Amino acid sequence: MSVIVDYLIIIWGFIMIGLMAIGGFFMFRKFLKRLPKEDGKSIMDWEEYYVNKTKNMWKEEEKELLDELVSPVPELFRDVAKHKIASKVGEVALMKDKTTITQDVLIEGYIIATPKRDHKFLRKKLAQKNIDTKPYEEFFQLSRDDYEQDWKRKHQK
């Protein structure tokens, strides 16, 4: 009986170490996003800036479309994903000197903000809404791996 208890304690120890490592990994990633870059602002500072700067530019239709597009994200992470995507959409809108967030700007920003694996769902959702994806093919072709680092220069090509 004590051998079984010993094994359970060992297994429980590994589970706890594993869970702590996973939590530590996510905390460390958040810490790295808070570190200031060359311009003195962190990634999260810029995200907050773009969301706040463009919050009055969103129409109800675009807010609903964004909610629909982030629906496959697990609910625990949905707010974070929505915030990141909304900040990238806002950045694109400001870069293009838009006064409102349009469907085109929303889709461009969504593509830029998300990894390539999420684009399959986006294509499916856009097809359901009868939105043509041809104008966005150049953005789909550039995966986030290639696009995220120097996206502004590549976006302007």
Please render the helix and strand layout as text:
Blueprint: H1 2-34, H2 43-54, H3 60-69, H4 75-95, H5 103-113, H6 119-128, H7 137-141, H8 144-147, H9 151-156
What does this structure look like?
- This protein has 9 helices and no strands.
- The longest helix is centred in the first third of the chain and has 33 residues, at 2-34.
- By secondary structure, it is mainly alpha-helical.
- It has helices at 2-34, 43-54, 60-69, 75-95, 103-113, 119-128, 137-141, 144-147, 151-156.
- It folds into 2 domains: 1-34; 38-156.
- It comes from Virgibacillus salarius.
* Count of extended strands: 0
Largest sheet descriptor:
none
Radius of gyration: 20 Å
- SS field, number of helical segments: 9
Brief overview:
With 157 residues, the protein is mostly helical.
Key terms:
157 residues; mainly alpha; 2 domains; 9 helices; 71% helix
